[in-house]
Structures are given as C-alpha cells and as structure tokens.
Amino acid sequence: MPEGDTVWRTARQLDRALSGAPLARCDLRVPKLATVDLTGREVLETVARGKHLLTRFEGGLTLHSHLRMDGAWRVYAPGRRWSGGPGHQIRAVLATAAQSAVGYRLPVLELLRTADEGRAVGHLGPDLLGPDWDEAKALSRLLSDPARPVAEALLDQRNLAGIGNVYAAELCFLGRVTPWLPVGEVPSPGRLTALAKKLLEVNKARTLRVTTGDVRAGRNLWVYGRAGKPCPRCGTAVRTWVPGPSTAQRVAYWCPGCQTGPPPPL
C-alpha cells in the first residue's frame, strides 16, 4: 500500500494537471457511478488526507479515491499513449482540454458532497503531511492502547495518518525497538512521531524514499526489503517475518543486532 508521501505526490500531480479548468471528459467506470457525468464542472483542487485522495469540483462535489495496494493515477498529455495498464483496469478518466488523469485499479471510488467528506476521512488521526498535523494529539492516540505492538499502532491510520509498512519498519529501527514491543514501553515515544513527520516531509518531493541519509539506490533504507542482507549499521543479517492468515499484522523487517524487544509471535 502506498505511503503517505506517495499519495501526497499523487495529489499534487492531479492538482497541477486538472485544477482551474472544466472537465472536457468524465468517465467513471464503477457500477455505482456509471451514470455520473461531471463534464463541464471546474476542478477546484485535489488534496491528500493521509492515504486518501479528494478531488473537489464546483458545485460542492468530491471524488474520493484510495489506491490501497495496486491502485494508481496517471496523467497524460493529449495524444500520449495511456500506459498504466490494460483498458479493463481503468476505473476513472478525468480530462480537461490540456491533460487526462486516468485512474487504474482503484479499489475505492465514490462521489460525495464536499460537506460530507468526513464520512470518508473523518476517522483519520492527524495527517503527517497535512495542515491539521498535531504532534501532541498523534502521540496521545498512539499511546491510547499501551499494550499494542508499536508497529501495529503506527500503522493504524486512526492514530496518525500516512504511515505504511516501509515507514513502520524504518521507524522501529530508528527507535531501536522491535515491531512487537508494546508501544507503552517504547523509550521516548515522542521521538517516533517527530521522526515520522520529518521523514515524510523530506521524502514527499522525491520518488526514491530515503531514511538512511544515503540517496544511492540499495542504500536508502535501513531494514525494509533487506531480508538476509547485512544491517547497514551493525552488519547483522536483517530478518523478516510474514504473518499468518489469523493476524492483522503485516510483513515486518528488523535487525536483531540493533533492535531490542519481543520477537515476532509464533
């Protein structure tokens, strides 16, 4: 699932491509929106809210989309071949005279009254890249269930919005704790929320996500995706854990040499 910085960049791309112009074409290819036509309405803006995308139109309407694991929006100039996937995977086409935004494999696509956006995103915690960011509120929500594993608490969008698997793994490494340490036992938990904000901010404008400070591909992350490879800090082999079907937790990466705390559940 894309991280919050990826969704932020997608929102910015859509905003630049569509905002300030009326739609010349609207094609929403999901059954519940099959008869909806927004052609002629001006696109006001596209904003990110955590991992959600909100495209707002004149007349008080918002198209809400979520990429989840496989979704993507692509922007094309007139005459350029649409290359984001086969045609049957297209779920939305929003086009002005100058640009076309094509949504592929979107698992969530719904039309809301702009005044009712809270139905889709009102449950989210403070957005790490949004104007509503409130570190104290995010930390309070993160610690509301002290027994919860720290990675699971970080991934809960109701606590703070924008963290996915990559950042959860990297934050646990930087905090020197395993993903399964109860969040209430994390030393200086406020450091995690501050680091989360810092990392998403520095990465939101670049496609290669960097948490190590080294912008070279393959050296840009501490543990995520590095199973079996030496830890860049101590040389211990990075380990991975794949949860069983009965758990809501996700794939985890950690360095046994650098991170202390409980091992993964059996």
TrEMBL record:
Residues spanning the membrane: none
Domain spans labelled Formamidopyrimidine-DNA glycosylase catalytic: 2-130
Family: Belongs to the FPG family.
Organism placement in taxonomy: Bacteria, Bacillati, Actinomycetota, Actinomycetes, Kitasatosporales
InterPro entries xref list: DNA_glyclase_Znf_dom_DNA_BS (IPR015887), FPG_cat (IPR012319), FPG_N (IPR035937), H2TH_FPG (IPR015886), Nei2_N (IPR044090), Ribosomal_uS13-like_H2TH (IPR010979), Znf_DNA_glyclase/AP_lyase (IPR000214)
GO molecular function: class I DNA-(apurinic or apyrimidinic site) endonuclease activity; damaged DNA binding; oxidized pyrimidine nucleobase lesion DNA N-glycosylase activity; zinc ion binding
Record-listed E.C. numbers: 4.2.99.18
Protein name (database record): DNA-(apurinic or apyrimidinic site) lyase
Catalytic activity: 2'-deoxyribonucleotide-(2'-deoxyribose 5'-phosphate)-2'-deoxyribonucleotide-DNA = a 3'-end 2'-deoxyribonucleotide-(2,3-dehydro-2,3-deoxyribose 5'-phosphate)-DNA + a 5'-end 5'-phospho-2'-deoxyribonucleoside-DNA + H(+)
Class of the enzyme per the UniProt entry, highest EC level: lyase
Record keywords: DNA damage, DNA repair, DNA-binding, Endonuclease, Glycosidase, Hydrolase, Lyase, Metal-binding, Multifunctional enzyme, Nuclease, Zinc, Zinc-finger
Species per Swiss-Prot/TrEMBL record: Streptomyces radiopugnans
Gene Ontology terms describing biological process: base-excision repair
Presence of the UniProt keyword DNA damage in the record: yes
Superkingdom in the source lineage: Bacteria
Occurrences of domain FPG-type (ranges): 222-260
